[in-house]
């Protein structure tokens, strides 16, 4: 895939060329949105909004990392959604027991009746633990650590995607990692032994 | 934070993990890792944290996010949208303008009654206003005194009092505080009979003006409502006839002092126009800025 050529064609209005770029980056975009918003449906909406916005504002692209430019669109869509949530807090749609008005913790309609291998279950639990710790981070730390540690972007790209100077990115990555380290140490039993932090590794 | 390392050291350790340090910083971090055991432990824990995050499973995309021509169809921009975006600002400015207008002395000095028809206020002619302003100064020094139940008795007889009941405000009990009391007891042999005059009942006792000469020309009293001088509704809208020279005040009617607005009438339109023009200019400027900003953003 010649990215530069596709971008050039897309800037001329070639929707097919742009859609090929979408297919290349949609996995990264959706995962970033999901980690930011912790909600599948909201992440879907944010990703779609980001790609529409990217297509409409393609003429604003001035070169550099196209991936970072697209991630910037996604990050902005996620910030918009987070601000909207703060303005209008949503009501939980969890099913409520008719008897005591309490939420049903494991509703039957959510249960997966397929047999779950242990490994898959552990992976899911680890994934839930990571997501829990990421959600505990402030928004500005969250975006940076997702882009650097999960998406594997370098600091320059993240600086471009977030719109902050390189020094700010360095500082935020370090602080986010220190916070995550503290949080993940509470889920030591979920971590594979080689990933266990500090003294827990010796115990494990 | 329990670590003794300062925040710069921690940032450097984290950046070293990602290879985002320059050669000088790299040398400094490597020296720190060799000399400081605590720094080494923190570095290892940060490395493991990064590894855990890097190995976090990716979520599968629920669907393709490719765009269709219908989705990206360019929308026709509405010209009114940028202006409407500032409608709340405009409303606030207008509200502030009206509030300031209430505070300015020349804008709302004249009190308005809710029941007062506008036409009635317009009926007050310029001639009346000028005539009232043209009153000599001495007439203002001797305002008319109103007596209830007729003029007071001559003060020189009897006990010399003017019949003021104790504990009763003189102006309401028939007394005339402006008239000097006779000093000492007079030569009258009769036992003085003290008789306080109360407020006359409705319809009894004509109100008379005191005989103090004044230059004020009485105006005819209009209307019969509880508020003197306010004409009934059926007369609303009719022009008030300009009173000629001194007309006798009919009994039972009291002259209403004319309330005249003092100045400011001629400056109101100018100030209002200026403020309005300023607001319009401001609104136009805001609209222009919004359009420019929108173009720049898009």
Describe the model:
Chain A is mostly helical. Chain A has nine helices and no strands. In chain A, α2 packs antiparallel against α3 and α6 packs across α8. The longest helix of chain A is centred in the first third of the chain and has 23 residues. Chain B starts with 6 loop residues before the first helix and ends with a helix. A two-stranded antiparallel ribbon of chain B has the order 1-2.
Strand order of the largest sheet of chain B: 1-2
The total of helices of chain B stands at 9
Work out the radius of gyration of chain A.
20 Å
Largest sheet report of chain B = 2 strands, antiparallel
Which secondary-structure class do the elements of chain B indicate?
mainly alpha
Beginning-to-end CA distance, first to last residue of chain A: 45 Å
List unreliable stretches of 5+ residues of chain A: 200-204
Order of helices and strands of chain A: HHHHHHHHH
Outline of chain A: globular
Number-wise, the strands of chain A total: 0
The value of Rg of chain B in angstroms is 44 Å
Mean pLDDT of chain A: 83
Classification by helices and strands of chain A: mainly alpha
Average pLDDT across residues of chain B? 66
Kindly state the percentage of residues in helix of chain A: 55-70%
Largest sheet of chain A: none
Mass-distribution shape of chain B: elongated
Assembly state? heterodimer
Low-confidence stretches of chain B: 156-194, 202-206, 254-265
Which two chains touch over the largest interface?
A-B, 46 and 38 residues
How far the N terminus sits from the C terminus of chain B, by CA atoms, comes to: 45 Å
């Amino acid at each position: 895939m010649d990215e530069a050529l596709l971008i050039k064609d897309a800037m001329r209005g070639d929707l097919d060329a742009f859609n090929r770029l979408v297919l290349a980056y949609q996995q990264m975009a959706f995962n970033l949105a999901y980690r930011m918003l912790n909600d599948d449906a909201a992440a879907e909406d944010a990703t779609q909004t980001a790609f529409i916005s990217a297509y409409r504002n393609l003429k604003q692209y001035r070169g550099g990392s196209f991936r970072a430019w697209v991630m910037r669109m996604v990050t902005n869509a996620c910030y918009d959604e987070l601000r909207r949530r703060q303005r209008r807090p949503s009501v939980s749609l969890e099913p409520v027991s008719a008897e005591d008005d309490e939420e049903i913790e494991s509703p039957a309609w959510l249960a997966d009746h397929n047999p779950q291998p242990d490994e898959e279950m552990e992976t899911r639990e680890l994934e839930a633990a990571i997501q829990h710790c990421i959600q505990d981070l402030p928004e500005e730390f969250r975006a940076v650590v997702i882009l650097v540690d999960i998406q594997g972007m370098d600091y320059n790209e993240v600086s471009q995607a977030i719109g902050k100077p390189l020094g700010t990115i360095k500082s935020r990555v370090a602080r986010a990692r220190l916070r995550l380290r503290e949080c993940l140490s509470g889920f030591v039993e979920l971590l594979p032994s080689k990933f266990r932090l500090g003294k827990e590794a010796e115990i494990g | 934070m329990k670590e003794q390392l300062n925040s710069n050291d921690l940032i450097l350790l984290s950046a070293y993990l990602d290879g985002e340090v320059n050669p000088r910083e790299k040398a400094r971090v490597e020296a720190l890792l060799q000399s400081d055991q605590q720094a080494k432990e923190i570095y290892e824990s940060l490395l493991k944290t990064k590894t855990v995050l890097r190995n976090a499973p990716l979520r599968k995309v629920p669907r393709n996010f490719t765009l269709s021509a219908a989705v990206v169809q360019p929308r026709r921009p509405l010209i009114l949208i940028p202006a409407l975006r500032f409608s709340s600002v405009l409303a606030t400015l207008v509200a502030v303008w009206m509030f300031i207008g209430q505070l300015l002395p020349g804008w709302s000095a004249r009190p308005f009654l809710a029941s007062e028809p506008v036409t009635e206020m317009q009926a007050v002619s310029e001639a009346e206003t000028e005539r009232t302003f043209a009153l000599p100064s001495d007439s203002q020094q001797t305002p008319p005194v109103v007596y209830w139940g007729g003029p007071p008795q001559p003060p020189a007889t009897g006990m010399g009092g003017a019949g003021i009941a104790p504990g009763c405000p003189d102006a309401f009990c028939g007394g005339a505080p402006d008239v000097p009391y006779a000093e000492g007891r007079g030569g009258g042999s009769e036992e003085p009979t003290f008789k306080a005059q109360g407020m006359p009942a409705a319809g009894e006792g004509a109100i008379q003006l005191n005989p103090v000469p004044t230059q004020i020309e009485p105006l005819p009293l209009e209307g019969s409502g509880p508020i003197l001088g306010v004409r009934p509704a059926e007369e609303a809208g009719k022009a008030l006839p300009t009173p000629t020279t001194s007309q006798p005040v009919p009994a039972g009617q009291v002259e209403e002092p004319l309330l005249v607005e003092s100045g400011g009438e001629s400056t109101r339109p100018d100030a209002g126009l200026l403020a309005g023009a300023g607001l319009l200019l401001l609104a136009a400027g805001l609209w222009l800025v919004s359009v420019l900003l929108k173009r720049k953003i898009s």
